[in-house]
Amino acid sequence: MKRTAVAVSTVVLLLPLSACGGDAEAGGGSTVTITVGYQSKTINTVTAGTLLRSLGYFEKQLNSLGDGRTYKVAWQDYATGAPITAQMTAGKIDIGSMGDFPLLINAARGKQLGRPTHLVAVTGYNLRGGLNTIVTAPDSGLTSLKDLKGKKVSTSVGSAADGTLVRALQRAGIDPGKGVEKLNQQPAVGASALAAGSADALSQFVAWPGLLARQGKAKALYDGAQLNLPTFHGVTAREDFAKERPTVLEAFLKAQAQATDYLNDHPVTAAEKVARATGLPAEVVYLYNGAHGIATFDPALKPPLVSALKRDVTILKSAQLTGDVDVDSFVDDQYLKKALGATYAERLAATPPAPASEVWPEGSRQTRTFKSSGELLSYVSAHRDAIRAAYVPDATTGTPWFADKAVWVADGEKLLPFVAPATARAYVDGHGGASVVTYAEALERAS
């Protein structure tokens, strides 16, 4: 029996229920369609979605199963995690990827509707919460979270970015339910609202804040890493599918690990692949997924991430989006452990790379790293017409940001970048003689 795995584009609402994980007789053998829900532009899920699909690793793993079946993979692309959960609980998606808050809603809905799901792997994570950012219009006079009181803020309710907004407002002494007018909008709609002036700020997940900043359509107001709480994206699978086809789920997880290794070994090429597939600028993809990007990619279900998920339940309960969620029963690493074998323990113990300043030279397939942001500025100053992008880590949180969009502080001979104005001001207030300078001034001082 010749076995093949074929990637199939589908019209998501017309996909028959029986096609998902189901068998159909095909020339004396059987055909199995595996349906994967992903978010192409939520680029911290690429190892379970966009990049994985472009590399064809899942199909190759399915071909190697040797069970006499022909496999087809139906990839379904969504803007957020909510519709993936709706399709999973309807039995129409077998495997999905989404952010931490949507994962909890996925768990709650699955249990409620009698089709339980499980978190089986992680895609990209940031231990401080830097995957989410609150931005304002480029000409906005808002400079801190306190300025949001009484303002209109766009977010996707129930998303990880919404969780960041709620926590950030609470820390700023603002009631998230009454202190701001929250607009529940899809990311693209929120971006348009910000541009039109019908929203004063936008709280969103990757890659929207970085994209809007790169395009000159927004500036950062709040770096999610200021919360110092982990945020991540992960892979969820239907329990009935996992039990019926454990080898298929393990094949997916093996393929995801391969895609993770590919991204980590070839970060520039991976960014360009994702850019071609999504239409996002490669420079924006690299901000998040690069060698020293905001996200760290590792499928292991690390204890700090599971602990963060448990803390997230409170936020969703207060918003009446879920009741109690049994996180311990939702998390299931048995399939990943079997898929990765001895390497699982190594991945579990791995830590994120240290923050670094990085330049992507024009026309190059490699980036250059620097020990300090000052050294990067010196290089950029001497090669102004040959820089595709320059990235610097926030001096407080370590969150990478575009050098030309950062808030710069001069402190003696040191030149320090910050994602948001409030953190820059906090540094200046605590360091006599330090002052905020423009990017142009920072380049001049470094030259």
Automatic annotation (TrEMBL):
Which organism is this entry from?
A: Streptomyces griseoluteus
**Which portions of this protein are annotated as coiled-coil regions?**
none
Where is the signal peptide, in residue numbers? 1-21
> What residue stretches are annotated with the SsuA/THI5-like domain?
87-270
Q: Does the keyword Cell membrane apply?
A: no
| Keyword Zinc annotated | no
Any Pfam family: NMT1
Protein known as:
ABC transporter substrate-binding protein
The record ties this protein, via Gene3D superfamilies, to:
Periplasmic binding protein-like II
Q: Which UniProt keywords apply?
A: Signal
Q: Domain of life here?
A: Bacteria
